[in-house]
Write a structure and sequence with these properties.
74 residues; alpha+beta; Structural Genomics Hypothetical 15.5 Kd Protein In mrcA-pckA Intergenic Region, Chain A; two-stranded antiparallel ribbon; 7 strands
């Protein structure tokens, strides 16, 4: 598993599909939708198939062999 990559969000929360785009883990929302629906994305160690899943600071998203940590610029 690759090292954690911190992704800064400027809001209190972000939708899972938006987060994958922000992290450059997917090219667009369509790709995000299918990866999430197919169970390829883990949130805090568990598969989550909801595109609208709200992520907050400290959450870990695992996808395609990488781990992304949701962070804020505070």
């Amino acid at each position: 598993m690759s090292h954690n990559k911190e992704i800064i969000i400027k809001t209190e929360s972000i939708r899972l599909s938006q987060f994958l785009k922000l992290a450059n883990a997917v090219q667009d929302g369509v790709e995000a939708k299918f990866c999430i629906q197919d169970g390829e994305v883990l949130v805090n160690g568990e598969i989550d198939t909801r595109r609208g899943r709200k992520l907050r600071c400290g959450d870990l998203v695992e996808f395609a062999g990488r781990i992304y940590k949701v962070s804020s610029d505070d």
